[in-house]
Every structure is written in structure tokens, then in C-alpha cells.
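Hi everyone,

Forwarding the result from last night's run.
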Amino acid sequence: MSDTLPAAFAQTMQQQLGSNWKQFAEAIQKPSPISIRFNPSKIESVPNLKPIPWTSLGFYLSERPLFTLDPLFHAGTYYVQEASSMFIEHALKKNVDFQKRLNVLDLCAAPGGKSTLLASLINENSLLISNEVIRSRASILAENLQKWGNDNIVVTNNDPEDFQTLNGFFDVIVVDAPCSGEGLFRKDPDAMKEWSEENVDLCSKRQRRIVADIWPALKQDGILIYSTCTYNRLENEENLQWIKNEHDVEFLAVDTDSSWGVQEIIEDKVKGYRFYPHKVAGEGFFMSIIRKKESEDTTKIKASKNTFGTPTKKVMDSLVKWIRHAEEKQFIQRDELIQFFPKAFTDEIAFFSKNFKLVIAGTFTANVKQEKLIPEHALAMSNALNGDHFGKIDMPLDQALKYLRKETLPSDGSNLGFNLITYQHTPLGWANVLSNRINNLYPAEWRIRMK
């Protein structure tokens, strides 16, 4: 592959790496490591796999399976994520008190790797805003977060500058900035085809604009995680120097073990961490932990008149049986759709609903048809589901895959009504069992097409 690398990229990397260039060039010709991160809310124990040392629930696989044909993947039991990017967990745990109530923003969030990681780190009293500016990618993000099962998440589809109205609102902001993608060359050949020196310069300017747009929304002493999946200094060290020159900040350090192979960068009080594929079992990645020291007027989200509709008492009498700790949830109804989220965030979600482009907020729960409830798929994925209230049909692999393909399923006439379809006792979705057939309620837009 080194022969096909863009000449300007190869020249820059030779200068940057010196005697390590040959090792680097050989490493990017080898297959990418395969890694996954488990959902702590949906597993009781993890298999005997090789752990990724800088994350608690990330593991390497010896080979790449067909994830599409694993029902547990669709159930949100794990997320397929590149190992280097999981370092964000280590960085945040060392610098953020996750026992506190936090407002967290994942600004460039699709497809959801870092958002699902953040969702597993924050406590139930914290709020995660997961944003993606491209609408089609925001839908993929929403799908992955619904599968993860947390109800303290809002997915938005906004430009970074829209968050300037939220002065000092966020305790943590993660900016995994759109970049030239050099760290993905061996994993994604298209990234190599799209690379150019002009694009590197364009990405660097765009990254600065994104940080400038979002900066007012970070509170004093809040943490900004700035990361890219690229190697060059223009998008990494030079952008950090720009942040230092523009703002009153402190660059934070974390302990790393020499066996990890992570390179710590310290230049003129700027600190960062670089991942090279010849040093670590992962892709190219760069990350810095930045504390905002300058003061910021804080936006107070005030209680406003509740404009949300609410379900009828008859409907609520049924719903409270479906949800664990239902008394802690706010149920709202828009047309025929009911959803819930933690009561503690009613004002915040009302604010985001009014001022931002919401994709999801909390958990879609049910559709109401003449006061009869049809459960929503997101409820089956939810960690708040009271699964004991529903009948269950635990399917073997072949039947589970038919369900995920939204194929017709046979019925023996038992367990009539809405049932949870499960695989290895993990929910996959809903089915309505009739006397002569099973109506497969798996979302058509999520169905798998691979045979």
C-alpha cells in the first residue's frame, strides 16, 4: 500500500516519523484489528476475550465475524468500535466526576461510537445531547442510540453554531472533528482517494470554526475532548496551539502505560495523545483533553409552560406497568406517539424541542390507536422496559434472523397478543401473536437484507 499512498502524505509522514517511517508503512499494509465494546446495561459477564487496556468494556476479536448475522449486535449488546478511539473513556474517567449530574454534548456524533461510550459513562441523572449536522447520518445515530437503550439522551440535527445559545451549559463537550481521515487509510481506501494537501488545510480551518462555534457552550472548568482520526500536525498540534492562543485553557494529562504504545505530545504547554498503527493495536487517532479556565455567563433553562400533550389516565394505567420506575419518568404524547424521558429533564427537553431540530428525545414508547397501545420498537430496546409484564418468545438463531429480516413467522396459537422476541433472552423487538400467524413488528427500515 505504501506505493499507492499520496506522495505528499508519504513525504510528510517520513519527516514526522523519521526512522519509524518504515514500520509505519508496513503497519498500514496489514489488516486492521477488530474490536468491540460491550453495553454494560445488557450483559452480565463478558466472554473470554483479549481486553483493550485503556477501556473497561472494549475487547479485541481474533477475526471479523459477520456482525450483521449476529442478533446480539442488533439488540445493542455491543458496538463495533475502533480500539484507539475508546481511549476517550480513560481520558474522561481521569478528569471528570461521573457521580455528579452532568450535561454532556457529543457534537459530531454519527454513527454513535463515542455517544454510546458516553451513555455508558454518565449516571442516570445526567443528560447526553448527541448531535449530527447531516440528516441522514443523524438517523443512523438515533438508531444506534435507541439500540443502546438509555432514556437520558437527546439526538439533535443541528449546526455547531446553534449551540451558542447555551452559554456555559455543558460540563463536557466531545468534538471528534471531521478530518482528512489519514488514520483510516488501511481501513477505508476511499479516505486515501479523497486525501489532498488542500483538503487537509480545509479540514483544519473547519475544525477551528467548529471549536469557535461551540466554545461558549462549555462552562468554566468544563472539559473539551478534541480528537481526530488523522496524523498531520495541521489538524492536531497546530489547532491545539490555536486554541491556546485564543482562549484561557489548561491541557490535561492522563497516565499511560508504556506497553500501550500511545505517544504523549507536549509542546509549549500543549498536550495531546497520538496513536500510530505501528505502535498500538488500533487505527490512527489523536486526542487532547482541554479544561476551559475562562468564565462564561451561564444560560439558565427556566421552567416554561408545559406544551407537551399527555396520555389519558386509562392509557397511563397501562403504561406504568410497562416501564420500571415509571414514577420517575415524564410521559408525553404527540398525536398518536407516546414517549418518555426522566422527569428531571422536562425543562431541558422542552427547551431543545422548541429551539433545536430534535430527532429523538428519551424513548419512543407506544402508539395509541383508539386508546389501545401498540409498543414501539425503542421500548423493546430500552433499559427501562419491564420485561416481566410481557410474554416472551426466545428464538434460536435461524428464527431470530428471520425475525430481523422481517419475514413471516409461524404461530402455534399460544401467547396471544404482544410478545417480546428474544435471542439468548435478550430483546430483539416486538411481535403480535394471533391465532393463525405472528405479525412481525420489527422496523422495516432496520431489517437486515443479508442472507
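The CA atoms of residues 147 and 190 lie 28 Å apart.

Cheers,
N.
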